[in-house]
Each structure stands twice: as structure tokens, then as C-alpha cells.
Amino acid sequence: MDNKSVDQYLKLPYTIEITRDDDIDNPGWAARVVELNGCITQADTFEKLGSMIEEAMRLWIEVAMEDGLPIPEPRQIETYSDKFVV
């Protein structure tokens, strides 16, 4: 088991997907962390979204640690050689 702290996990480059919700009655923004299944939050403005996703990630990781669940690491960024082999 990994012995990282919550703050160490929060410094890792997780993949965050942000979408705009154009609902007429409740517009805003939503964000989810791809690697942390179910780690989702939303905010009324894009400016508020940054602190909201950090809080959601912190809570997700804390609960996983308390429950003894594995915490996924960020997915690796793929690199390409820029060569096309036939």
C-alpha cells in the first residue's frame, strides 16, 4: 500500500474534465476527475470550480484512505516518437 498523504495525492497531475451546463433553470459548470471514479462537483461559475474540485478530490481521497481502498494514480501521458512505421 502506498503511504502518500492527501496533500501528496492532490499535487499529482490528475485528469480533470470540465463541462458547461447550459440548463436554463440551473446553468453552471461541472468537473470530474477521470481517475477517481465518482469524484464530481459543480459550481455556478467557472471561477468557483477550481476550489470545488480540489475539495471534492480531498474528500474522495480521505474517504478512500479511511476505508482502506486503493487510490488510483493519474494516468500516464502517452508520448509518441513522431514516426510512422509501415
Describe this structure in words.
This protein is an alpha+beta fold. Helices cover 30% and strands 19% of the residues. The protein has a three-stranded antiparallel β-sheet, covered by helices on one side. A hairpin with a 6-residue loop joins strand 2 and strand 3. The relative contact order is 0.20. The model has no long low-confidence stretch (mean pLDDT 89).
Structure described in brief:
With 86 residues, the protein is of the alpha+beta class. It is built from two helices and three strands.
What are its keywords?
86 residues, 2 helices, alpha+beta
Average pLDDT metric: 89
Low-confidence stretches at least 5 residues in length (pLDDT < 50)? none
Based on CA atoms alone, the radius of gyration comes out at: 16 Å
Distance between the termini: 42 Å
What overall geometry do the principal axes of the alpha carbons give?
flat
Instruction: Please indicate the percent range of residues in DSSP E strands (runs of 2 or more).
Output: 15-25%
Topology, element by element:
Layout: H1 6-10, E1 16-21, E2 28-33, E3 40-43, H2 46-66
Antiparallel strand pairs: 1-2, 2-3
